[in-house]
Amino acid sequence: MKLYSSIGPNPRLVRMFAAEKGIQLEIVDVDIIGGENRQAGFLALNPSGTTPVLELGTGQVISETTAICEYLEEIFPCPPLIGTTVLQRAQTRMWLRRVDQAVVQPMTAGFRAAEGFELFKNRVRCYPQAADQLKLAAGEGLCWLDEQLGTQTFICGERLTVADLLLFCFLEFGAQVGQGLNSGRCGNLARWHAAMGSRVSALS
Amino acid sequence: MKLYSSIGPNPRLVRMFAAEKGIQLEIVDVDIIGGENRQAGFLALNPSGTTPVLELGTGQVISETTAICEYLEEIFPCPPLIGTTVLQRAQTRMWLRRVDQAVVQPMTAGFRAAEGFELFKNRVRCYPQAADQLKLAAGEGLCWLDEQLGTQTFICGERLTVADLLLFCFLEFGAQVGQGLNSGRCGNLARWHAAMGSRVSALS
């Protein structure tokens, strides 16, 4: 399997997911700074123009990180990162969406509205008028997640899941673009982040 | 199983999903206009304060429509609305996310930024500064989906999936809040929408 990858938190999430499972993927680097993902060759693979994209041995392609991670989980169930029971999978998907809505969506939109505006303004619709509000929302989402995490080891309790990987990759991204974690206010997440950062997969 | 439901496209999606499968759910109506979902009783069920929420016979709860639909698909696989093969499921999840990103996210944020502002301003962060841009993005997302649909029967080709149900529920919602489909520009979606609207499940 071939992973069309690039800089950015979404491709990193899939690489980290694969690393946790010991899956070897052939990596094809896509130059998103240069706009390679918005040109005809790449758009034929993924009409959304986003990375990552997984190309199967059959030539079929899957884009969108959630779909790719679910696919990899079905093909390589061990170690589980979504779950081994229907209830575990439901709880993982619920938390994955909560992390997405509370943090990933406003953080990404806040970045594109400000620091990332020059890069993205001709690619996707950006909201510079709401840049500060979007970043505030992402920060509030982190505080809410901090309360939800409490003293648990992982977002879903004692199980490492794709929800942890998603939040980790976006926290690391946020730290690079002026939306770092407020460790003083979010002590639970700071502890969790340190533990996540010590995993071998974090090198992905 | 008990579904905490309300007005709005997300609870409707789960009701429509259940109707397509012939699943009977006990419906508990939540008064979201009156803010029942932001009070302690409901927040104990779902700390995100969103509807719908599925309560299992064991008392465990699942929120977030994607997680609820995936759960119902696993428990009641027929007729499939996500897929019967790993590749079908991957393609459905990919398109579900594309519909979410291209239409659902900007349409919802556009609504909360304008027509829905008074209702939402003290509940979630809204972006009135970007209202027009958010609505434009949702309209552009619909045009993009129209091209992708082409002459296909459903979003994933000849299979009805949860991606169709998601888009249908949000198109109907959009039509009620000033973000209706431009049928002249989006003829493929207009045809698809008429066919979806004639399904018995559309009465959900």
Descriptive overview:
Two copies of one chain form a homodimer. Chain A has 204 residues and is an alpha+beta fold. Chain A has two domains: 74 residues, Glutaredoxin (3-Layer(aba) Sandwich); 118 residues, Glutathione S-transferase Yfyf (Class Pi), Chain A, domain 2, CATH 1.20.1050.10. The first copy, chain A, is 52% helix and 7% strand. Chain A is built from eight helices and four strands. In chain A, strands 2-1-3-4 form a four-stranded mixed beta sheet, with helices on one face. In chain A, helix 4 runs antiparallel to helix 6 and helix 4 runs parallel beside helix 7. The radius of gyration of chain A is 17 Å and the shape is globular. In chain A, 48% of the residues are buried. At the A-B interface, helix 3, helix 4 and helix 6 of A face helix 3, helix 4 and helix 6 of B.
Q: How would a crystallographer describe the biggest sheet of chain A?
A: 4 strands, mixed
The total beta strand count of chain A reads 4
- The CATH C-level name of the largest domain in chain A is Mainly Alpha
Mean pLDDT of chain A: 97
CATH architecture descriptor text of the largest domain in chain A: Up-down Bundle
What global shape of chain A is seen?
Answer: globular
How would you classify the quaternary structure?
homodimer
Distance between the termini of chain A: 17 Å
Task: Report the C-alpha radius of gyration of chain A, rounded.
Answer: 17 Å
| Uncertain runs of chain A | none
Count of separate structural domains of chain A:
2
Helix content of chain A: 40-55%
Going across the biggest sheet of chain A, name each strand in turn.
2-1-3-4
Beta-strand portion of chain A reads: 5-15%
The secondary-structure element order of chain A is: EHEHEEHHHHHH
Look at the helices and sheets of chain A and give the structural class.
alpha+beta
- Number of helices, where a helix is a run of at least 4 consecutive DSSP H or I residues of chain A: 8
**Biggest interface, residues from each chain:** A-B, 39 and 39 residues
CATH structural fold name of the largest domain in chain A: Glutathione S-transferase Yfyf (Class Pi), Chain A, domain 2
